[in-house]
Structure formats: C-alpha cells, structure tokens
Amino acid sequence: MSTGLYTQRRRSSAASKQRAFLSSVIVLGFVAAGSTAAAAVYQVGPSRSHSNLQSVADLLQPGDVVEVDGDATYSGGVQLDRQGLPSAKITIRGVLVNGKRPVISGGTNTIEAAGNHYVFEGLELTGGSSRCFFHHADDITIRNSVIHDCPQHGVLGADDDSGSLTIEHSEVYSCGSGDGKHQIYMATDESAYPGSVFRMDHCFIHDGNGGNNVKTRAERNEIRYNWIEGAYYHELELIGPDGQDPSLAIENSDVVGNVLVKRNSFYVIRIGGDGTGDTDGRYRFMNNTIVVRPGGSAVFRVFDGIDAVEMNNNVFAAIGGGSVDIMRDSDASWVSGRMVAGSNNWVMQGSSVPNEWTGTITGSDPGFISLDTYDLRLSASSALVDAGLENAPGCPGHPFPDPLALPAYVPSILTVAVDNTGLDRPQVGALDIGAFEYGTGSPGTGGSAGTGGTGGSAGTGGTGGSAGTGGTDPGTAGAAGTGGGTSGTGGDPGTSGAGGSAGSPGDAGSGGAAGSAGSVADPGAASGGGSSDVGTGATGPGKADLGGAADDPSQDPSDPDDSEPGIGCGVSQGSHGGSGWLLTALVALAAAVGVRRRNG
C-alpha cells in the first residue's frame, strides 16, 4: 500500500460529522448553563449525606469533584453520563481511610463511563457480572486504581461511542473467562471519535482467568512501562476493529519499555487481526524485556492484514535456557509484501530470528540480576549494557507515524507504583537493551549507607567589649566570644575575642575577657540506608500448557461485547443552574439530528 493510500483510509464519514456536531452542541449547552457556577465537591461515604456514588451522578457539572471515603464498600451499577469538559474534567476520587481505598462492587457494570472527560482515581472495582469498568465515552482516565475478580471483562471499551482512554498506575488481575472475555478489552469508535488513542502506562496486569491480558482494537495504542504477566492466551493482542468500515483508519501500535512474562507455552503477542478485524497497520516494539518458557510458541503471532513491524533494542530470554522462536507470520496478509525491520535485539543462542534483523546479539545469559526471581534489572556484566541503538531504522518507505520518545522510565517490578517517583530512566552511557537501564537506581535496590557530613568551620571568637565610658568606673569588659562550628567533622577552636579598648579619660577600662574557644563540632551522621530490595507481588500459579491453539482461540464471534450497542447522551439541567431556555433549544436541536438514547 502506498503512503497516499495509507493516508486516505484516515477519512471521516458522514456519521462522524453528525456526531461531532452533536458533541459540539452538548458542550456548548453545558458552557452556557454552567460557566458561571463554581465547581462543586461532593462527599460520598457511610456517614455522608450521599451514601452511594449513584446519588450524585445526576448532579455533576464540568470541574466537579466527588470524594468517596475509603474502607467502605459501595454498590456497583453506577452510570455516569453527565458531561465534563476538556479543561474542566469531572473527577471521581477515592480517599484512603485506614489506608484502604473505597470498594465499588457488583452490578452488571460496576462503573459505566458514559459521559466524556472524566478522571477515576483511587478506586477498587470488583464483581461486575459483565464488566467492572464499561467505557463508552471520550477522554477518560483511570488512575491509581485496582480492578480485580471480574467474572467476565475487567475493562471493556465498546465498539460504539468510545473514544480515548488512559489507564495509568493501576493493577488489573483475576478477570476474564474462557477464550472471549479479557482482563482489558479496548475499542474505539472511528466514526464518532476519529484519532482516538488507548494509552496504558505504569500498570501491573497479571494472573488472568481467561482470554488475553490486554486486547485492543483501538485506532492507536501506546503501551509503555507496564509489567504484563500470566495471561491465559496472549499477553498483548493488538488488532483491528470489528464491524467498522475498514476505510476509516489504519490502526497502529507503539509498545515501549515494557516487561512481558509468559507463564505457559502460548504466543506472547498477536498483531494484525484475529479473524474478525485486521489493521493493515504499523507496529513498533522498542526496549521491551520479554521472558518466555523454553519450547513455547513464537513471541510474535502475525495474523491477517498488516503493513509493517519493527523491533529494536528488545531482549528475548527463556527461563531455564533454550532457544526462542521470535515470529510466526504464515497467517499474515502483508499489505505490500513482508515489511520487517529490527536492530540490536538480544536473543538466546539458537533462536530463530527474522532475516531482516541487524546487529542481533546472542548469548546464554542476558545478565539480569536474577531471572529466576524476575529481578530483570541489569547486572554490571550484562551484555545488554550500552548495546542499544538510539536511532534505530524502521521499514524503508513504511515509517512508523509519530513514534514515542526513547524510554524515560522503567516498569515497577511485580507491583504498581502510585506515581513515577523512583522510576526515572536517565541514560547512562549508550542506551541499554531492554526495559531497564544499568546504573540508574532502578526501583527496589537498597541504598548504601550515607557518607559522613563535612566538618564544620572553626568557631569565630567573640568580639571584645567596647571601651569603658570615661569617669571613675573602669570600662565594662567585653563579652566572651561564642565559638563552635556547624555539625560535621570537628572544627578548630574559635579564636579568642579581642580585648576591650582603653576607657576615655578617667580610670582605664579593664580589658575584655577572652572569647571562649569554639566547641568541637560533632561528626556528621551517616544518612539512612536505602529502601528494601525488590517488592514482590502476587504471581499465582502458571496456567497449564495450552500447546498449539486454533488460529483464533481468543475471538468469540457470538460475544455481544464485540458489537456493543451505541449509547448516546442526553442533556439535563444540573443543580448549578443556568440558561434553561437555551438548554431546551439545544435538546430540540439534538433531537433533530438524530440523538440515540443510551441504553447500556
């Protein structure tokens, strides 16, 4: 496919224009009705006037904040369909009580995000019979949250009405079932929200009960700094939309700085398609650390329509040794012939690698601190140190669009951090291969004892007293000098204070007393030791060896979630007040252009 044809597929349909117009109408209405009202803070808790989250849902306006008390459990089935604004998002925030988040449990959908521009943070979601978090809105963020034990999907993005979603610093585990329900299953509506992005940063996704750990049909995927482990099927599945016009867009994925650990013998990553929707897209894998079991299926399973794939500065290791099969593309449908590039990857000796790769490094040990305990940081003698390539070439004539920068952070090890503190990846020397950089103070390393403080300077002697006033009495002696250096290694004694000057006519004033010597400064105290070594997270038992699966084990064509119902949004006037006549006119206008009611 030529570059021109590649670009042509990114066009909008008439439906896209209609929905974009409707979105503008709704946003205009909220601006007119609520622009003069101050943002409100609602408190939800067992002892608050609002005892559950649903009770505030219809009150929300752009910029509002809902604080949900922790150490309490609330009923799920919460639907949030009021609209925020890009510059005034609605925030649903869990407040720790006794160190615990609020738990929102149960319901068909534990939380349903149906309104645009929301932030959900500090929450624990569990037990939704269909989905613990149902996403069919735009500009949604899930942050510092835990989603677990969801019998079907953990997080699901609908095929209709879903735009951009970001998940960051969050943990998802024990979700999914069978081969068609997944821990995270994303999609974006390329008609309603063209150009949408699914971003996942600094997350810990592990121990899936079925399906894939992360399956996404989004128009663009940006997957960075995550630890992904223990999927039933693929750890990552990056494929095309199901049921949308294939001419609307190309789906591309950028995967940078992650750890992916396979506990069974199934494929690690599938790209291209799954039999129901392919991307014809481009893929970029940069500085990832991938760990497999010996004798397993290939790392990359290339399937259906795909344009190009590039793999640079990745490490492919096998627990217990043995070779690694990097790529299987016998089921691929290349847009314009096979387009593969790769440089400076490290693989186990005897591994099967693409012929197009250059600068490949082989060995029997990548030089991790401990592969057996999953401490995948680099030892000083690792062959991965300074062996990466910063400006790695892609596929000629098929460049990856808007590539992410070189990795700026490292993943947390078998856990999730609340923010980026301690996760920086400043480059030391040349770029290292894999998700970690040697010598950067990666998370989990104990600090050495602090160096003693520098000795204080000598104490200065006190100034002698001024001359005595003329008369019969002698001048008053100068006060003693106060010595003493600052803390640290002992300083020299302070110099003596100068004597007082002679008095004016009359009896001479007595000399000022000598300043007392400066006290010896204390030696500097050693600073405290560093934090404890690598934290451990729940890993759970590995799944049984699945062996070679059918071409499409993770797709269930009968799954209604593959074609979620379209859900529109109505306009209602909140308690903030506003221009009622204008809202009434806007609702009428919205109806005229065909608003569909959200029906869940």
What do these coordinates show?
It is built from 4 helices and 36 strands. It is mainly beta and 600 residues long. The protein has a 22-stranded parallel sheet that branches. Strands 3-6-9-12-15-18-21-24-27-29-32-34 form a 12-stranded parallel sheet, with no helix packed on it. A two-stranded antiparallel ribbon has the order 35-36. Helix 3 (54-57) links the parallel strand 1 (41-44) and strand 2. Helix 2 packs antiparallel against helix 4 (580-592). It is globular, with a radius of gyration of 32 Å. The relative contact order is 0.11.
Question: What are the main properties of this structure?
Answer:
22-stranded parallel sheet, twelve-stranded parallel sheet, 7% helix, globular, disordered C terminus
Structural class by sheet pairing and helices: mainly beta
**Beta-strand fraction estimate:** 25-35%
Oligomer: single chain
Mean pLDDT: 78
By DSSP, the count of extended strands is 36
User: Spans of 5+ residues with little confidence (pLDDT < 50)?
Assistant: 1-17, 30-36, 441-600
End-to-end distance, in Å? 39 Å
Number of helices: 4
Question: What percentage of residues falls in helices of 4 or more residues?
Answer: under 10%
Q: What is the CA-atom radius of gyration, in angstroms? A: 32 Å
Overall geometry comes to globular
Biggest sheet overview: 22 strands, parallel
